[in-house]
Amino acid sequence: MFSRSLFQTSRPMVAKSQVPKAVRYVRTFKQEEQPRLRINALAPNFTAETTQGKLDFHEYLGNSWGVLFSHPADFTPVCTTELGAFAKLKPEFDQRNVKLIGLSAEGVDKHQKWIKDIEELSNLDKFSFPVIGDSNREVAFLYDMVDEEGFKNLSKGIVHTIRSVFIVDPAKKIRLMISYPASVGRNSAEVLRVIDALQKGDSKGVVTPIDWQPGQDVIIPPTVSDADAKKKFGDFKTAKPYLRFTKA
């Protein structure tokens, strides 16, 4: 759940009797209070309203992997294509024990209307994963999802570069972070590829080379001796003493 210490509200220095009822207090975001996210850091937990009701992020993931990806606003062209693509690939993510969760910096009611467009344009029978309503930009702040100029506008207006991707493992550790500019659509196939590579590495104790795809040879880590590699992997090919390939 969000810690109150992470956020402050801007309040005019006047007596309560002088504050108009219509005043809307906004959050003040300070960079020095922002969590530092790194690969293998614990993914910050939060509770939020979504298109599938209120949820706790860690509870939602449970023992699954997770992909959290964000958008600056609803009814935006690039983001509409992205959400449709991820929704179409949901069966592939399900096979890999991965739960999807999107985010947009507007309210849930507007998300529900946007989802109808996504279903229509992507020929979906039903859009079936939650999208967080982050109109207060709390999750965007928590996960540092904006560029330098966008940070200045977190409390107001559209922040064009809330377009990040986080892969989280079942231990709730961040395993990948990618941030895209507003003009470039994401690569959903790459997200799947990275998950395949991470899961292969975790299960087999290997690492994967450039452009690796499932079924291709993997690399034996240099920390594993030739003798241990023979016991663990059987046959392997040595290109250099530090570069050995094997089947997985």
Automatic annotation (TrEMBL):
**Endpoints of the signal sequence:** none
Q: What InterPro entries does its record include?
A: AhpC/TSA, Peroxiredoxin, Peroxiredoxin_AhpC-typ, Peroxiredoxin_C, PRX_1cys, Thioredoxin-like_sf, Thioredoxin_domain
UniProt-listed PROSITE patterns: THIOREDOXIN_2 (PS51352)
Specify one Pfam family.
Answer: 1-cysPrx_C
What keyword terms does UniProt attach to this protein?
A: Antioxidant, Oxidoreductase, Peroxidase, Redox-active center
Q: Which GO terms describe its cellular component?
A: cytosol
Indicate the segments forming the Thioredoxin domain, all copies: 37-200
User: What superkingdom heads the lineage?
Assistant: Eukaryota
Report any one BP term from Gene Ontology: hydrogen peroxide catabolic process
**Alphabetized GO MF terms:** thioredoxin peroxidase activity
Active site (UniProt): 79 (cysteine sulfenic acid (-soh) intermediate)
Family named by the database record? Belongs to the peroxiredoxin family. Prx6 subfamily.
Q: What does this protein do?
A: Thiol-specific peroxidase that catalyzes the reduction of hydrogen peroxide and organic hydroperoxides to water and alcohols, respectively.
The protein, known as = LAMI_0D12640g1_1
* Organism this protein belongs to: Lachancea mirantina
